[in-house]
Write a structure and sequence with these properties.
The protein is mostly beta strands. It has 4 domains: 171 residues, Glucose Permease (Domain IIA), CATH 2.70.70.10; 164 residues, no CATH class; 116 residues, Chondroitinase Ac, Chain A, domain 3 (Sandwich); 88 residues, Immunoglobulin-like (Sandwich). Helices cover 8% and strands 44% of the residues. It is built from 4 helices and 45 strands. The strands form 8 sheets. Strands 1, 4, 5, 6, 7, 8, 9, 10, 11, 12 and 13 form an 11-stranded antiparallel β-sheet that branches.
C-alpha cells in the first residue's frame, strides 16, 4: 500500500513537471545539456532575473531553436541589455524570449540589417506580423552568443505570458534540468526597525554566518541573539542545481515565529514594472555594505511586489516579552528540495528609547508624500512613493575635490534605496561664466572614482533625475571621446572581415556613434563591455576592390564629438 502511494505521488510529480503551468509543453531551446548559470527570480542589480541562463560550454555559436510553434513577434538589437534578442509568440498564450544571441539565421539577419539601414541605427526594436517569420516547434532561429550586457557565453531564455508580458518561472515547465540539490543558507542579519530596538544590547546590526548541524541550518552556538523592540530579519540563501556551482535564486521562502507563519513569498511571476521593488525586498543596506544578497523576511510599506502571501501581514518581528522566540525559516526550490534554518531569539521587554544617531541636518520624510529639501545651492524634490519607508533624511556638505566645481553634497545615505527618480538641482558656481552645456553632476563609484550622474543646465542650476542617494557635486566635461583603431588607420583591408575600433569616454559616457563610408551611412555595431565599435564588410553596401573614405563620429552625453577620418582599400 505504501509503495502504491509513493508511486502515485511520483507520477503526479512527473506529470506536473511534464506539463508545467496551464499544461503548456515546450521543447528545449538548445540541443546541448541544459546546465544553468542563473535561474528565474534571482537577485540582480535593481531587478529580478526574468529567465534562466543556459550555459553554452564556454563558447558561442550553438543552434538556438523555437521551443514551440508560433511566429517571430519582436526582434530587438541593443548595445546593452539582451544584445541581439528574438521573441516568439505561441498559440498557447506564451511568448518565448532568447537573449544575448551572436547572430540570427540568414533570412532573419538580412531582414534586421535592412531595417537597421532603413532607420540608420544599430539599435532597433522591431514588431512583426504573424506572416513575416512563422515558426515550427524546434525550428532553428539563431546562434547563441555573448552580446549585450553578458558576462560570458550563454543563452538567456524566458517564457512570458503573452497577454501582459509578465515573465514566468521557466523551471516550472517541462525542461529536463536536473535538480537534486537543496538551497543553502549562508548568512543571517538582524537590524533595528525602530528607535527602541536593541540587539545584544546595541542599536547596531547583528550578522552571523550559518552552520549546519544534523541536517538543520542554525546560528553558531557561540552567537547568542538577545533582542527587544521591532527588528528586521534577512537571510542570504541560494539555490544550486546539478552540474553547476552557480548561486541561483530560491523559489519560496517562509518564516515561522513560534510555529506560526509570519512571512512567505513565492517566485512564480512578476511584472517588469515591479522589478525595481527588488530594492525594497532585499536587505539593501547589507547589499551596499558587503555586496551580499539577502532577502528581507518582512515587507516594507512601499513594497508592491506580487510575490508575497497576501493573507499575511509580512511585518517585522515585534519582541516585547521576556521569553524565548522560536524562529524557523524554510527555503525551497521548484523541484521540491528544501532546507530549514532554526534558532532561538531571547526576548526582553526593552527599555527607554535610544535614538539612532544621524550626522548633519535631519528632516523627516514620509514615503507616501511629496518631499522637498532646500539648503543653500542645493534643492531636491522627491515624488510620493519614491521611498520604500519613512526616512530621517540627512544632508551634509564636504570640501571641494579634484575634478569638481563645487563641494560634494551628501544627499541622505547611499544605503537607502530609491524607487522613482527624484530631482536634484545644484546651483552653478558664480565663477563659471560659460560652458553651461558642458556642466553635469558627478558622484563617486564604489572605487571612489568620480563618475557622471548626468544632468543638464537649467536656469542657473544643473538638474538631474536620480535613482540613488549619495554624494554629488557639479563637474565639467569638455573632453571628446577617444577613437583607437585596431591595427593601421588605413591602407589595404582586402583580406579583412571587419573594421574595429576601441572607443571610450572619460566622464559623461558614449552617447552616439555614426559611421559613413563614401558619404553613405554604414552599420557600425557597438559592444560597450569591450569598448568595441566595429563594421563588418558588406558587398551589398560598399563595392569590392575599391578605395573607400571613412568618417567615424563618436560623441558623448555633453556633446563633445570626436571624428576619425581615413581612407582604405577593400
Amino acid at each position: 500500500m505504501m509503495r502504491r502511494a509513493i508511486t502515485l505521488i511520483l507520477v503526479q510529480f512527473l506529470m506536473f513537471h511534464a506539463s508545467g503551468q496551464d499544461g503548456a509543453t515546450f521543447e528545449p531551446p538548445v540541443k546541448i545539456p541544459m546546465y544553468l548559470s542563473g535561474n528565474f527570480g534571482e537577485i540582480r542589480s535593481d531587478h529580478f532575473h526574468s529567465g534562466i541562463d543556459i550555459k553554452t560550454q564556454g563558447t558561442t555559436g550553438h543552434h538556438v531553436s523555437s521551443v514551440e510553434k508560433g511566429y517571430v513577434s519582436r526582434i530587438k538589437v541593443q548595445a546593452n541589455g539582451y544584445g541581439k534578442s528574438i521573441y516568439i509568440s505561441h498559440p498557447n498564450g506564451y511568448t518565448s524570449v532568447y537573449g544575448h544571441l551572436d547572430r540570427y539565421r540568414d533570412d532573419i539577419a538580412a531582414y534586421v540589417k535592412r531595417m537597421q539601414y532603413k532607420q540608420q541605427s544599430h539599435m532597433v526594436d522591431l514588431y512583426l506580423s504573424k506572416e513575416t517569420f512563422p515558426m515550427e516547434k524546434g525550428e532553428f532561429i539563431a546562434f547563441s552568443g555573448n552580446s549585450g550586457s553578458s558576462s560570458g557565453p550563454h543563452l538567456h531564455f524566458e517564457i512570458r505570458s503573452s497577454a501582459n508580458q509578465h515573465p514566468t518561472n521557466v523551471l516550472s515547465y517541462n525542461f529536463e534540468i536536473k535538480d537534486l540539490v537543496a538551497p543553502r543558507f549562508h548568512s543571517i542579519f538582524l537590524y533595528p526597525m525602530d528607535k527602541n530596538c536593541k540587539i545584544n544590547g546595541k542599536t547596531e546590526r547583528f550578522s552571523s554566518k550559518i552552520v549546519r548541524d544534523k541536517g538543520i541550518y542554525t546560528i553558531p552556538y557561540s552567537s547568542t541573539v538577545e533582542a527587544s523592540g521591532v527588528l528586521g530579519i534577512s537571510v542570504e540563501v541560494f539555490d544550486y542545481l546539478d552540474g553547476a556551482s552557480n548561486r541561483c535564486g530560491v523559489h519560496t521562502l517562509e518564516m515561522f515565529v513560534d510555529n506560526k507563519l509570519s512571512y512567505s513569498h513565492v517566485m512564480d511571476e512578476f511584472a517588469f514594472s515591479e522589478t525595481r521593488y527588488i530594492n525594497a525586498h532585499i536587505d539593501y543596506e547589507e547589499r551596499i555594505k558587503s555586496g551580499k544578497k539577502a532577502h528581507r523576511l518582512h515587507r516594507l510599506p512601499n513594497d508592491r511586489l506580487r510575490i508575497y502571501n497576501q493573507a499575511l501581514e509580512n511585518k517585522p518581528l515585534i519582541v516585547n516579552e521576556s521569553r524565548n522566540y522560536s524562529i524557523r525559516i524554510i527555503a525551497s526550490d521548484v523541484a521540491g528540495n528544501s532546507s530549514t534554518l532554526e534558532f532561538t531569539l531571547k526576548g526582553s521587554e526593552g527599555n527607554n528609547e535610544v535614538p539612532i544617531a544621524n550626522e548633519g541636518e535631519v528632516t523627516y520624510m514620509k514615503y507616501n508624500q511629496v518631499n522637498s529639501f532646500e539648503k543653500g545651492p542645493v534643492h531636491l524634490e522627491i515624488p510620493a512613493y519614491s521611498l520604500y519607508q519613512d526616512l530621517d533624511f540627512s544632508f551634509q556638505s564636504s570640501p571641494q575635490a579634484d575634478g569638481s566645481l563645487t563641494p560634494f553634497y551628501q544627499i541622505a545615505n547611499i544605503e537607502v534605496p530609491v524607487h522613482k527618480a527624484y530631482t536634484l538641482s545644484i546651483k552653478k558656481p558664480d565663477y563659471v561664466r560659460s560652458l553651461n552645456r558642458k556642466l553635469l553632476l558627478i558622484s563617486y563609484n564604489d572605487k571612489h572614482e568620480i563618475v557622471s550622474a548626468g544632468g543638464t543646465f537649467q536656469d542657473g542650476y544643473i538638474v538631474a533625475k536620480l535613482r540613488n542617494f549619495g554624494e554629488f557635486a557639479v563637474g565639467l566635461d569638455t573632453i571628446a571621446p577617444r577613437i583607437m583603431p585596431h591595427g593601421s588607420t588605413g591602407g589595404d583591408f582586402s583580406a579583412k572581415k571587419e573594421l574595429r575600433f576601441t572607443i571610450e569616454d572619460e566622464l559623461s559616457g558614449i552617447a552616439k556613434y555614426e559611421g559613413y563610408i563614401d558619404n553613405q551611412w554604414a552599420l557600425f555595431e557597438y559592444d560597450p563591455k569591450n569598448k568595441l565599435l566595429y563594421y563588418s564588410f558588406d558587398e551589398q553596401h560598399i563595392s569590392k576592390d575599391s578605395e573607400h573614405e571613412l568618417e567615424l563620429y563618436v560623441s558623448d552625453e555633453k556633446g563633445n564629438v570626436k571624428l576619425h577620418h581615413t581612407t582604405f582599400n577593400w
